[in-house]
Amino acid sequence: MLSKSSYLIFIISGVIGISFWIGFNVNLLPTEASINAPIYDELFKILFIIGLILFIGMSLLVVYSLIKFRKRKGQIGDGIALEGNLKLEIIWTVIPSIIVLFVGLYSYNIYDRMGGMNELNHDHSAMGNNSEKIWAGISQSNNNLGLIDTNIEVSAMQFAFLFNYPKGDFISGELHVPVNKEISVKMESKDVIHAFWIPEFRIKQDIIPGQPTVLNFTPTKVGKYPIICAELCGPYHGGMRASIIVEEQSDYENWFNQNKKDELKA
Ligand SMILES: [Cu+2]
Fold first, then answer.
1. CATH classification of the domain holding 202
2. Does residue 17 surpass a pLDDT of 60?
3. How many Å lie between the centroid of ligand 1 and the Cα of residue 221?
4. Is the same domain home to 188 and 136?
């Protein structure tokens, strides 16, 4: 016969093992279509595994308690009153604290790797090389895949997105971008707060009236993906969608040349 603690260790390792297996084999997210996506998905996987461990562990505990502490035949009352369990209280304080701290630090690391933090670049060489960083918004300006090649302005209004290509002097209802190039879009709202969300790129940025925001991203997969407004902006918010079309450089150039103002055509 195994001892009680061996059973416990066996069950806990089982729960952790199953959670890791599900976390690494069940993919709940849409396709990864930008260089942000794999970084973001790393964090999602870890959070998903932690959630699974808690969910499966709790469910087993509830089922166990239902059976173990059920009312027996002839039983009267609730049994002996219990008051406090120091060991248990320490465990349920320490474990969540460690998890929360870990998730916080890890999220910061992911955000930093997605380009969300900027070096504070005032030259304090005399003060040593502590690299202070400040919040900056997702930008990824330090990747080497390609230079910022397009100059696109996104206007958001109730209830549509419009994409202005100043270089070609035209406005499009669809956002066309070349693949594997860093794209920089300047976003402005005409009325209320909207949010520019591309699930396949794992990016989302608020669009705020009177305060233009810049969002940089690098698509890695040719295809058509939805752009969704992710900020409740009015009665037709649910219908505020557009598409982003990621295409090969030559296809993008063809599309651009077909659409640009005649005066600009060589
Ligand atoms: Cu909106």
1. 2.60.40.420
2. yes
3. 26
4. yes
Distance (angstroms) between ligand 1 centre and the Cα of 232 equals 6
Instruction: Tell me, yes or no, whether 137 and 102 share the same domain.
Output: no
Residues 21 and 130 in one domain: no
Does residue 97 fall inside a structural domain? Answer: yes
pTM score = 0.77
pLDDT band at residue 48 using 50, 70 and 90 as cut-offs: very high
253 lies in which domain range? 125-265
The pLDDT, as a whole number, for residue 46 is 92
203 C-alpha vs ligand 1 centroid, how far in Å?
16
What is the structure's pLDDT at 63? 97
DSSP per-residue string spanning the chain: ---HHHHHHHHHHHHHHHHHHHHHH---SPP--BTHHHHHHHHHHHHHHHHHHHHHHHHHHHHHHHHHTPPPTT--S--S-----HHHHHHHHHHHHHHHHHHHHHHHHHHHHTT-EEE-----GGG-----EEE--S--TT--S-----EEEEEEETTEEEEEETTTTEEESEEEEETTS-EEEEEEESSS-EEEEEGGGTEEEEEBBTB-EEEEE-B-S-EEEEEEE-S--STTGGG-EEEEEEE-HHHHHHHHHHHS-GGG--
| Distance from residue 228's CA to the centre of ligand 1 (Å) | 8
Instruction: Please state the domain count of the chain.
Output: 2
pLDDT per position as a tens digit, 141-182: 444 444 455 678 999 999 999 999 888 888 999 999 999 888
Report the separation in Å between the CA atom of 233 and the middle of ligand 1, taken as the mean of its atom positions.
5
